[in-house]
Amino acid sequence: MRRKNIGKMIVLGILTPAAVVAVVVMFVYAVQEPPKQAASVISPAETISVPPQKQDPSNTVTVPIDSGAFSVSAWQLVLVNSESKMPDSFQPQITEAFGVEMDERIVDPYTALYTQALDDGISLWISSAYRSPEKQQELFEREIEQNLRQGLSEPEAEQKAETAVQRPYYSEHNTGLAIDFNGVTDDFKHDDAYEWLLDHAEEYGFVLRYPEGKEDITGIMYEPWHFRYVGPENAIRMNELDLCLEEYIEYLKLHPQEASELST
């Protein structure tokens, strides 16, 4: 140890005063300046792979349609199916238009869709839109009776009925946001109007609600005539991702960062 200390003293003795000052300055700078790290770049794929954080329900904010409507709690994304009853907080704003009743918030979008369809030589008419819970109950019981006449037991008849007609408050038609087109028949899938809707309905905020191949998710058989208003931004994104409404809502919950980006 003494040899090392003596060596250091000899070196310092040889250095000029200016050199000593320079060494001291460099030492202080090295101590104060934090080590530089390479900037990390996060790709979109890496961002999506991050597990979602649990959200506090009290922090959920309903986004009005004018600002994007990518909030899962937005009115146009209300989920109503055999397992999800229409929330008590959802109040349809029913008005008359085109010879039927519908939510007044979708009148303007539908009018624009209808007008463009006419300009393109496409004929559309509404077979069914809003239904009262009482009317829904009537249709559900009628479907059960039809199944009973086919020889099904009562539980079987009721179960089958739910794949075609929902119970009151479990049907999208109770929201006023759903529209059945041109006679409610399977043949509609061969109609030019159906192809036009598949190509253009999203521009006005409407999507095919019960697409073919999604029956296990929606709980409803393929209905080419049944379209649902979700807003243009949501409709376009749903079609891009090939998601039905049930899947899309889960997607937004798992990707809140994308919902935030798309709503700006």
From TrEMBL:
Supply the Gene3D superfamilies for this chain: 3.30.1380.10
Q: Which residues form the D-alanyl-D-alanine carboxypeptidase-like core domain?
A: 101-231
Q: Which GO terms describe its molecular function?
A: peptidase activity
Could you tell me which SUPFAM superfamilies the record lists for this protein?
Hedgehog/DD-peptidase
Q: Which Pfam families match?
A: VanY
Q: Which GO terms describe its biological process?
A: proteolysis
| Source superkingdom | Bacteria
Its name, as the record gives it, is M15 family metallopeptidase
Q: Which organism is it from?
A: Candidatus Egerieisoma faecipullorum
